[in-house]
Amino acid sequence: ICGEDCQVAQIDVCLLDLQLMILLVLQANHMVSNMSHPEPQVITAVIAAHQHNDKQRLLRLISVDAMTIPCITVVGTQPIFY
Description:
Elements lengths: L12 E4 L5 E7 L10 H22 L10 E5 L2 E4 L1
Parallel strand pairs: 2-3
Antiparallel strand pairs: 1-2, 3-4
């Protein structure tokens, strides 16, 4: 995500509002060997979404007291809601 080596976390689908804030994250599980544990991919996607929202909030001077970003991950054809 960030540090000395910048890495990119890819989000499959996200829902944005008019101020370009991410409201929902949908992450499909692409790792065939890790089908029973999709949480690490969802966590990295939500951290990336949070960082994006912070940048948008600072650029646009948006005041946000608290925000919950719902997440959906799909393993095969089974959705899991967070």
